Every structure is written in structure tokens, then in C-alpha cells.
TrEMBL record:
GO biological process, any: coenzyme A biosynthetic process
Protein name per the record: Pantothenate kinase 2
GO molecular function term, any single one: pantothenate kinase activity
UniProt GO cellular component terms: cytosol; nucleus
Function: Catalyzes the phosphorylation of pantothenate the first step in CoA biosynthesis. May play a role in the physiological regulation of the intracellular CoA concentration. Functionally redudant with PANK1. The phosphatase activity shows preference for normal or oxidatively damaged intermediates of 4'-phosphopantetheine, which provides strong indirect evidence that the phosphatase activity pre-empts damage in the CoA pathway. Hydrolyzing excess 4'-phosphopantetheine could constitute a directed overflow mechanism to prevent its oxidation to the S-sulfonate, sulfonate, or other forms.
Family, per entry: In the N-terminal section; belongs to the type II pantothenate kinase family.
Source organism of this protein record: Oryza meridionalis
The reaction(s) this protein catalyses: (R)-4'-phosphopantetheine + H2O = (R)-pantetheine + phosphate; (R)-pantothenate + ATP = (R)-4'-phosphopantothenate + ADP + H(+); (R)-4'-phosphopantetheine sulfonate + H2O = (R)-pantetheine sulfonate + phosphate; (R)-4'-phosphopantothenate + H2O = (R)-pantothenate + phosphate
Cofactors demanded by this protein: Mn(2+); Ni(2+)
Domain annotation Damage-control phosphatase ARMT1-like metal-binding: ranges: 576-836
InterPro entries in alphabetical order: ARMT-1-like_metal-bd_sf (IPR036075), ARMT1-like_metal-bd (IPR002791), At2g17340_3_helix_bundle (IPR035073), ATPase_NBD (IPR043129), Type_II_PanK (IPR004567)
EC number, UniProt record: 2.7.1.33
Sections of the chain in a coiled coil: none
Biased composition (Low complexity): 38-48
Length: 854
């Protein structure tokens, strides 16, 4: 039988089984599947399309008019009442920083030709004028500016035309000048700078209450963003699982320039119960005066090398080196911040700026923690969420606040932090646009695809210029907390303070993917975890090395796929820098972006490529492999047809697994083939599967000689087949756009495929004029193609556009479904084979999991 000779070009360790065995030395690593494919079959047909939310922006065609020359072939159509492209920007203008949240819709890729578009139309991917191509939904970006540099912010808005809905918006393209653009804004600056915005950008700021916005933003984040909240104690970050039904009440402490303390009882139900004027502005203000630091980050960084005992009066200083244990104070506890400076006969310049900064930071953080606790106590609250940019993701700040809360509450109350810490108000203002209908977003509608950080994406041009300056953050010491209310002096190991540029990597660009939903056939969506193995630090190191080793090869391919132009080279460089920065960031702190599995890591790379406008790095490689495989398909089909049914089924499964390399000593580490065969042969006796979902993986032999023949067998048995493929290119994975063309080619050699593809609307009269004998092929069940909503080598079933089973090794090996499931994969990674099965590279998995009817 035919060899399944292709492999994932980067991920598979062996560089491919069978014919194209490029020696195990090729460093790629496996996303797992040789066939890498899996099929799920349901005796009940699942719902074809998930319902869309009713409150999404609708296309408002009223008053539509042609704008420009009527003789043009494609004149711009002006939709004066189409508002959802406008409500794209919201601001929070605080005393120290301006925060922007803006939404960018993805335009159809200009490289997308008409043929592809018409394929999509046929596949129902264009939905009543609204794009449903998932990654085209849009993104939420987060950017901040110093309030003192307001004009930079205005330039940014203006250069991106954010106030007019972005450069892709109809109003921008048509050159229309809506005379009354209104932008939601909160924070004091919404009042203070309203005139300036009108003057410079011609926009009116619609003021939203600051506290309303803080609460709306916090509630939204806690409800919709996975791994948003975390605790930080003794240098350890831990994500908190938020129970949606048990979120309220909580205390929200926003540490901006000043501090607001709010008791939150529900959506829109809250009370500002306290505040303190000793906040972020105090630390930065006093710090600037006393240290001559030029930036907040510089001040924070200084603190990391500080020793506050030269400045603070400690309990031990007062008690002659002793603890005051009777009231629970250790000798190292600060008795009086800055107290030591009263007795020394010293000038400011005699103190180290490092020590000053640390004393200040401890004083203010501790104080905020303590006041927060007291307010929690007032209302009997156990959970305190801290936001605001004073936190700055800084380990020592968070540890100090947590320490104070923990110490004074005797462990009763918990301090938690938010990844989007400083953007609560801006997000709340953004949410207040009623018309955009984001209010009912559920957790899987907003996918933090990967956190490039706004500066990287939004100003790619800038990034490209500055790319080489972005260096991996340098670890520096951070103080470790000890018991009894005190902190020891900083030790050499520990956390880091990142430059502002790389700190932006902390916050992800949120992709709004309105059509995504949880796969309805998952047995238990709550318990579902796509990643088969946890990435501990060792695993991380291993994968980072693999990905780093492949980077230059990938860049070469990506640049070549864009014609090798200077522009492509520039983007290739920028991609390499950005991706390396992410890897470096994750190496230091694997949890920096929330819990991060292998699937996320691989997706990050794909997303990163797309950010730098590499649409499909493997396009020509995929084409070549498809053509080569299609050329041998007729022979394979003939060979298969000459076999008896049992032998054919085995050959088909082996075909998916590239089983010819069994000869080289590989074995099946999971082998449920006999069970599967039994079920399949029972098909014949009148209970064929109604529908099977085949999750296809690689282009070339994998899909053409593996999955398509398997699909054909199912069709022959009367089972409808849905080929589920990636929505966007990822490595050499076949995409939903490419599949119809491949199926049409394959159908030239096979009546079963042809009739089924016609029944499924995949091909129309493709064979008109071609005569062959279809008498033996009474198939009328359809063969269909759907996209899965993914653009990654792995699949997360919480984020799927349609039903299906998943790639079956790195992700989903352990996932359980409500339908019979067959997971087929070849383990093309020695490490994984050993870890999971005590097996070897090229071992195969044929895992059949029937649903046991009870
Ligand atoms: N790059 C930065 N520049 C200035 N301050 C920063 C920076 N990064 C973090 N900070 C800290 O964050 C604080 C501002 O936080 P935030 O943006 O949440 O408040 P704000 O909205 O400006 O203030 P307020 O809400 O009181 O009006 C600063 O006072 C400072 O302590
Ligand atoms: C005045 C605001 C609300 C402006 O954001 C903030 O800076 C703050 O809460 N300051 C503390 C004021 C107080 O309650 O003492
Ligand atoms: Mn603020």
C-alpha cells in the first residue's frame, strides 16, 4: 500500500516516515500525529451550525448609497448607519496614564482571490454579509501612554484612525467625515481634555463614570478571560479558578495615582467604600524627587537592588536586635518607614537611591494592602482584587500587598491580581458601547490567542525598526518574604522587572471570535483539558530549544513564501525577534500569559507569523506534496478495492498511520483496531454510523492517501463524512479552503467520492462529460468540509467553530466525547513516546473509544 510519507515539516522529530525519511536527526518535534488525524462518529447527527448570539452587531444597510463613481466596477458603498465599525475605541484618561482599548476588525486578506472566496461562499462560511471566518472576528488591543504625553496618544489615534473605526473602516476608506464622532472615555481626563480631543481629532468624548467603568471592566475580565486572576505570594504566582456563580461580593482595589476601594456586589452593583491618596502617584512622585529617576520603571528597577534597612527603622533597631514576639513582630519587621533617617545626620544624597526606592515601595504597597484588608473586614469580604498600573506585574509589589493582607487577616482574606491590571477602566468604557453587543460574551468567545502586546502589533512599523533593541529581560534579584511580618533583604535569585516594551507582553491581544463555541460532543466541557501533558519547566526548556532551533529555517520558508522580497525579509527578521522575545519571556516565567500548554505555544508561533503578515509559509510545499500524492492515489484506490473488507480496513488505518514503517520496528502502543473493526463490520448489518467527523491534519500524503481513502470507505458504508480542517494555515496543515480543491482532484479518480462531494455541495458538475460507471456505487450520503476555527497545529475543543474530534496526541489524547471516537496518531517524537507509553518514536496509536450505552 501507499506510504504515508509526509510529516509535519517542523514538528515531527523524524522528518517523516516511509519514503521521505529524512533521518531522525532532523530536529523537528511532533505535534504527534503521523496521520495525526482522528475521527469521531456519531449515530445521531449533531447540530450542523451553532446558533449565533442575537445581540452581535448587525449589518445596518439602511440609507446605503454608492459613494464615488457609479461607473466603477466596485464602487464603495457607504453605510451611514452601520455603527459597529465605529465603536472601536475607548479611553481611560487618568492622573498618570492614558489607557486605550481598541477593537480592530480583520479585513479579508487581500491576497485572497476570488476562487477562494467563492469556495467559502459555497461552504457557507460567509454568513449573510457578516464575516464568520473566525479569526476575522476582530481583536481587542490594549495600549497605554503617559498622560503627560497626551499628544503622543493623539498621534497614535490619528495615525491609526481609531476614532473613525480604524483604517479598514468604511468611513475611512470612503473618505467620509462623520461630523460627530463620539468616543467613550472615562477617568478625570475625559473631563479635563474633552476640548483638546475636539480640537485635535474632531471627536466628542462621551463621559462614562470612572467607578462604573472600573467595576464593569473587572467583572468582564473575571467572567470572560481565562486565567485572568492570580495570587502572588513569596514569589509564586498561581492562577485562580473563578467560579462564575460565586464571584460576588468582592473588594476591588484600583491602585492608580490614587487608590479607590470598591465593594462589588454584582454587575453594576457596587459602592466605593474608601480610598487613599497614598497610591501609585505617591510612589512615583516621591521616588522621582528623591532619586532623580527619569521613569517609573527605572525607579521600580532600582528597588530591586535596594536594602531598606538603611532607611527604615526596624523593630530590631528599637528593641536592640530582638523580636517583639509577644505582639507578633520580628526584629526585621519595619517599625517605622523612613524612621532611620531621623537620627542619622545625613543628607538625601548620602542614601542610595536603590534603598530609597525599596523603602518607598514597601511603605506604599504595605499600606495599601493593610487599608484594603481593613475595608474587607468592614464588610466581611474574603476576596480582594487589586488593579491599577501601580501593580505593574511587579513581583515584589504584589508580594508586599499579599503579605499585608495575609498577615493582618491571619490568612482569612486573599489578595488577587489581574493580568489586565491597568485596563479595567478603559475596558469598562469600551463595554459601555451598547451597540457592539459584547455584553454576553462567554469565556470562549474571547480567545487570548497569544499575547504579543500592543506595542508589538499596533506599531509593527516601529517594532520592525526597533526590533533589534528588544532584548530578553535580564533577571535581577528580588526580595524574599519571611515570616512574622518582616521581609529579608533582597536575595540574588528571583524575579525580574521587564522593560516597558516586554512588559506589554503580559497583556494579550484578545481575539473576538463570535462564532466559536465549545464542542457539543465533549463529554464534560468543564473537565476538558486539551493538552495531554503539562509543561513543567523541563518540558518548556525542551520545547523552547526545539522551537528556537527551527526558527531560522522557518523564517527562510516564510520569507520565500512571500517572494523573498526585502519587505518579506524585514518582516521575517521582525517575526524572529518577536517570537524569540516571547520564548524568552516564557522561559523566565512559564505562567506569564496564563496557563500555557504546548498547544498554546505552537499556536503562538503561528499567530506570530500571521502578525507579521506571513499568510501561509508552507503554501508551495503543500501544493507540491498534494500533487505528488494525488498522482499515486488512483493506484492506491485500485489496490484497496481489490482487498476484502477486513484487509481493506486494516490497510486504511495503516495508511493513515503511515504504517509501512512498522517494518522498522515501530509498534502500536495503543491498539484497539480489532474493536474498531468489529464496530465497522457491524455497520454492514444495518447500523452504520450516521455521520463521521474526520479531523484532517497535514497536507500531502496524510490527507490524500490517508484520510480521503478512509472517508471514502465510510461513505461507501453509508456514513456521511465531514472533513474538518483548520480555518487558517498552520505549518503544512491542510486548510478548509484547500480541501475542496483536493477532494475535487481525488474525485476524478473515484465515483464514490465524486457523488458524495456533489451531494455535499463540494463540487458541481465537476465531471460533466466524464463517463464512468457508477452503477456499483449507490452512494448518496454527502461528503462535506467544514473549518474548525483553528489556525494552530493543535485543537482546543473549547474554542471550536463546529463539532468534531481532535488532533489526537499532544492534545486530546485523553479527551472523552459523547460519541464513538477513533484516535489515530503516529508518535513522531521520541521523548513523547517514552513519556506517554514507554515506547519509541514511530510507534502508533489506534485508540477506539465507543460510547458505552448505559
Ligand atoms: N510607565 C509608567 N509611567 C508612569 N506611571 C506608571 C507607569 N507604569 C506604572 N505606573 C504607575 O501606575 C500609576 C498609574 O496607574 P493608573 O494608570 O492605574 O492610574 P491613573 O488612572 O493614571 O490614576 P487615577 O486613576 O488616580 O487618575 C502611576 O502613578 C505609577 O505609580
Ligand atoms: C480621584 C481618583 C478617583 C481619580 O482616579 C483616584 O485618584 C482616587 O481614588 N484617589 C484617592 C482619593 C481618596 O479617596 O482619598
Ligand atoms: Mn485611573
Amino acid at each position: 500500500m501507499a506510504a504515508n510519507n509526509n510529516s509535519d515539516p517542523i514538528l515531527d522529530e523524524g522528518g517523516g516516515g516511509g519514503v521521505k525519511h529524512e533521518a531522525a536527526g532532523e530536529a523537528g518535534e511532533g505535534k504527534g500525529g503521523g496521520g495525526g488525524a482522528a475521527a469521531a462518529a456519531a449515530t445521531q447527527a449533531p447540530a450542523a451550525m451553532l446558533p449565533r448570539s442575537g445581540s452581535r452587531p448587525q449589518l445596518d444597510l439602511s440609507g446605503a448609497a454608492i459613494h464615488g463613481n457609479l461607473e466603477d466596477r466596485n464602487p464603495t458603498i457607504l453605510l451611514p448607519n452601520q455603527s459597529d465599525d465605529i465603536s472601536h475605541l475607548a479611553l481611560d484618561i487618568g492622573g498618570s496614564l492614558i489607557k486605550l482599548v481598541y477593537f480592530s476588525r480583520h479585513a479579508e486578506h487581500s491576497s485572497e482571490d476570488k476562487r477562494k472566496l467563492s469556495t467559502k461562499r459555497r461552504l457557507g462560511m460567509l454568513n449573510g454579509g457578516r464575516r464568520s471566518y473566525p479569526v476575522l472576528g476582530g481583536r481587542l488591543h490594549f495600549v497605554k501612554f503617559e498622560t503627560g504625553k497626551l499628544s503622543e496618544c493623539l498621534d497614535f489615534i490619528s495615525s491609526k484612525q481609531l476614532h473613525r473605526g480604524g483604517v479598514d473602516s468604511p468611513s475611512w476608506r470612503s473618505g467620509a467625515q462623520p461630523d460627530n464622532i463620539v468616543i467613550k472615555a472615562t477617568g478625570g481626563g475625559a473631563f479635563k481634555y474633552a476640548d483638546l480631543f475636539k480640537e485635535r481629532l474632531g471627536v466628542s468624548l462621551e463621559k462614562e463614570d470612572e467607578m462604573d467603568c472600573l467595576v464593569a471592566g473587572a467583572n468582564f475580565l473575571l467572567k470572560s478571560i481565562r486565567h485572568e486572576a492570580f495570587t502572588h505570594m513569596d514569589g509564586q504566582k498561581e492562577y485562580v479558578q473563578i467560579d462564575q456563580n460565586d464571584l460576588f461580593p468582592f473588594l476591588l482595589v484600583n491602585v492608580g495615582s490614587g487608590v479607590s476601594i470598591i465593594k462589588v456586589d454584582g454587575h453594576g452593583k457596587f459602592q466605593r467604600v474608601s480610598g487613599t491618596n497614598v497610591g501609585g502617584g505617591t510612589y512615583w512622585g516621591l521616588g522621582r524627587l528623591m532619586t532623580k529617576c527619569k521613569s517609573f520603571d527605572e525607579l521600580l528597577e532600582l528597588s530591586q537592588r535596594g536594602d531598606n534597612s538603611t532607611i527604615d527603622m526596624l523593630v530590631g533597631d528599637i528593641y536592640g536586635g530582638l523580636d517583639y514576639s509577644k505582639i507578633g513582630l520580628s526584629a526585621s519587621t519595619i517599625a517605622s518607614s523612613f524612621g532611620k533617617t531621623i537620627s542619622d545626620d545625613k543628607e538625601l544624597s548620602d542614601y542610595r537611591p536603590e534603598d530609597i526606592s525599596l523603602s518607598l515601595l514597601r511603605m506604599i504597597s504595605y499600606n495599601i494592602g493593610q487599608i484594603s484588608y481593613l475595608n474587607a473586614l468592614r464588610y466581611g469580604l474574603k476576596r480582594i482584587f487589586f488593579g491599577g498600573f501601580f501593580i505593574r506585574g511587579h513581583a515584589y509589589t504584589m508580594d508586599t500587598i499579599s503579605f499585608a493582607v495575609n498577615f493582618w487577616s491571619k490568612g482569612e482574606a486573599k489578595a488577587m491580581f489581574l493580568r489586565h491590571e491597568g485596563f479595567l477602566g478603559a475596558l469598562g468604557a469600551f463595554m459601555s458601547y451598547e451597540k457592539h453587543g459584547l455584553d454576553d460574551l462567554r469565556i470562549h468567545h474571547l480567545v487570548e490567542r497569544f499575547p504579543m502586546g500592543a506595542p508589538y502589533i499596533s506599531w509593527m512599523e516601529k517594532f520592525v525598526q526597533k526590533g533589534t533593541q528588544i532584548t530578553a529581560p535580564v533577571p535581577v534579584g528580588f526580595p524574599v518574604t519571611t515570616g512574622m511580618g518582616g521581609f529579608e533583604r533582597p536575595t540574588a535569585k528571583g524575579d525580574i522587572l521587564r522593560s516597558d516594551a516586554s512588559a506589554a507582553l503580559n497583556v494579550g491581544v484578545l481575539h473576538l471570535v463570535p462564532t466559536l463555541d465549545v464542542f457539543p460532543l465533549l463529554e464534560d466541557p468543564k473537565m476538558y483539558e486539551p493538552n495531554t501533558i503539562d509543561l513543567d519547566l523541563n518540558e518548556y526548556k525542551y520545547w523552547f530549544k526545539v522551537l528556537s532551533d527551527h526558527l531560522s529555517d522557518l523564517v527562510d520558508k516564510a520569507v520565500a513564501s512571500e517572494g523573498g522580497t526585502d519587505d518579506a525579509k524585514r518582516r521575517g527578521d521582525a517575526f524572529a525577534h518577536a517570537f524569540s522575545a516571547h520564548l524568552a519571556r516564557l522561559m523566565e516565567e512559564p505562567a506569564a500569559y496564563g496557563k500555557f500548554g504546548l498547544a498554546n505555544l505552537l499556536e503562538l508561533r503561528e499567530e506570530c507569523l500571521r502578525e507579521f503578515q506571513f499568510v501561509d509559509a508552507y503554501v508551495s510545499i503543500k501544493q507540491r506534496e498534494n500533487e505528488a500524492s494525488l498522482a499515486v492515489l488512483p493506484d492506491l484506490l485500485m489496490e484497496l478495492d481489490s482487498m476484502n473488507e477486513e484487509a481493506r480496513l486494516l490497510a486504511l488505518i495503516e495508511g493513515v498511520l503511515a504504517a509501512n514503517i512498522f517494518d522498522w520496528g515501530s509498534r502500536a502502543c495503543i491498539d484497539d483496531f480489532d474493536m474498531f473493526k468489529k464496530r465497522m463490520l457491524a455497520d454492514k448489518k444495518g447500523q452504520p454510523y450516521k455521520r463521521a467527523l474526520l479531523f484532517v491534519d497535514n497536507s500531502g500524503a496524510d490527507v490524500v492517501l490517508g484520510m480521503i481513502p478512509l472517508a471514502r470507505e465510510l461513505l461507501r458504508n453509508g456514513t456521511e463524512v465531514v472533513l474538518v480542517a483548520n480555518s487558517l494555515p498552520a505549518l503544512n496543515d491542510v486548510t478548509a479552503n484547500e480541501l475542496p480543491g483536493i477532494v475535487a482532484e481525488a474525485a476524478k479518480h473515484c465515483g464514490i467520492l465524486r457523488k458524495a462531494a456533489e451531494a455535499g455541495g463540494l463540487i458541481f458538475d465537476a465531471m460533466a462529460g466524464i463517463q464512468d460507471d457508477l452503477k456499483d456505487e449507490p452512494v448518496s450520503v454527502p461528503l462535506m468540509v467544514v473549518e474548525n476555527g483553528c489556525g494552530s497545529p493543535c485543537i482546543d475543543f473549547r474554542q471550536l467553530i463546529l463539532e468534531g474530534m481532535g488532533r489526537s496526541l499532544h492534545t486530546n489524547l485523553n479527551a472523552r466525547f459523547k460519541c464513538d471516537t477513533l484516535k489515530l496518531a503516529m508518535v513522531k517524537n521520541q521523548r513523547l513516546a517514552e513519556k506517554l507509553f514507554n515506547g519509541n518514536i514511530y510507534d502508533c496509536i489506534c485508540k477506539f473509544e465507543p460510547v458505552h450505552l448505559t
